[in-house]
Specification:
about 70% helix
């Protein structure tokens, strides 16, 4: 659409809106306006539905509600199991990625060692 067409379309919409009777309950504008809720009303309705769904009381204090909704995390002390490392490494690229990354690092170290060796031989000659 060209800029002129867009401006014309906007002007037509504004004209239609200004001629619509806002007091007429059947107009689309009036229906949408009637269905709008404030954020507080919306949040209150969601809170009440959540409370009803989970069998809680609206008058409960926040720590009591949190105690019912959340459980403490379990904590394991000691070492990380091999199974956990395997799952982590699989999620971070899989077997092909880690083998190729390891080969690249080993290759890079070998090139560095060979470079130092070659510079030493070259310097002595």
């Amino acid at each position: 659409m060209a800029q002129g067409e867009i401006n014309h379309a906007i002007a037509e919409l504004e004209k239609q809106h200004s001629t619509a009777d806002d007091n007429d309950p059947t107009t689309e504008y009036a229906i949408v306006e009637r269905n709008l809720k404030t954020e507080d009303v919306h949040n209150d309705e969601r809170r009440r539905a959540f409370v009803d769904q989970h069998g809680l009381s609206i008058s409960m204090d926040l720590p009591a509600v949190q105690a019912q909704l959340f459980k403490d995390e379990e904590r394991v002390e000691g070492y990380v199991k091999l199974e956990t490392w395997s799952m982590y490494l699989t999620a971070c690229g899989g077997k092909k990625y880690w083998v190729s990354a390891l080969m690249f690092l080993i290759g890079f170290q070998l090139v560095t060692i060979f470079q130092d060796y070659w510079v030493r031989i070259w310097r002595h000659n």
